[in-house]
Amino acid sequence: xxxxxxxxxxxxxxxxxxxxxxxxxxxxxxxxxxxxxxxxxxxxxxxxxxxxxxxxxxxxxxxxxxxxxxxxxxxxxxxxxxxxxxxxxxxxxxxxxxxxxxxxxxxxxxxxxxxxxxxxxxxxxxxxxxxxxxxxxxxxxxxxxxxxxxxxxxxxxxxxxxxxxxxxxxxxxxxxxxxxxxxxxxxxxxxxxxxxxxxxxxxxxxxxxxxxxxxxxxxxxxxxxxxxxxxxxxxxxxxxxxxxxxxxxxxxxxxxxxxxxxxxxx
Length: 266
Known about the structure:
By secondary structure, this protein is of the alpha/beta class. The chain has 2 domains: 2-90 and 191-262, HAD superfamily/HAD-like (Rossmann fold, 3-Layer(aba) Sandwich), CATH 3.40.50.1000; 94-188, Hypothetical Protein, Haloacid Dehalogenase-like Hydrolase, Chain: A, domain 2 (2-Layer Sandwich), CATH 3.30.1240.10. It is built from 10 helices and 14 strands. The chain has helices at 2-8, 33-43, 61-64, 94-106, 126-136, 168-171, 193-204, 221-226, 238-243, 255-262; strands spanning 13-16, 47-51, 70-73, 78-81, 86-89, 110-114, 119-121, 140-141, 153-157, 174-180, 183-188, 211-215, 229-232, 246-247. It has an 8-stranded mixed sheet with strand order 5-4-3-2-1-12-13-14, sandwiched between helices. A 6-stranded mixed sheet has the order 8-7-6-9-11-10, with helices on both faces. Helix 9 (238-243) links the parallel strand 13 and strand 14. Keywords: Hydrolase, Isomerase. Pfam families: Hydrolase_3. It comes from Pseudolactococcus chungangensis CAU 28 = DSM 22330. InterPro entries: Cof, HAD-like_sf, HAD-SF_hydro_IIB, HAD_sf.
């Protein structure tokens, strides 16, 4: 613990996942301690950021109201500061999106497109509703969205999602990351929250030793690998629990506040 406390002294910026980290995904519950934490960090001169698989459309009002300094969204593909200035903007190549749509349609797999500030479904089904509604509510439907908008990542929706295998022509360019029993993120091969956070650190001229990350799911793996201090929530995926420097309590039990106090950051 002494080593962790020494490392915590170097923290200058903290990134937070949203779902089951800042708020409960299924209910939207966010404890009163969260706004207090952000205000206290601001008073201490510690910067804050959101690092999420959601895009800006999915950053709900109560999270925006925390006034974080940075938004790393769409698993690192779209990064902006708190004033809306874009730091990093890397949509999937148009040919890759077209090939993904062709493969998914041939495989009879429904899908979701992530624009910079829109989330659109190819079709709205009960399976789609079960996975997506707790995160985004009901989505608009436009199977041709990708033809007129930049796409930063996609989601698969299938009863056999765990059996989907990318064809060879796509497997070299994108990868799938499970986040739900019926759905996976499709992100660039080199894309991750870590890439987005790295861009913020470069702009601030900070090192990885200056960053702390809170997360719970597999799309936090690269972020936890990046360096700095990593804190997993009590409900985290087992792989994330093993990677974490520190494991804290659940959202409902003020896990973030407890961790920051235990590490003498607050």
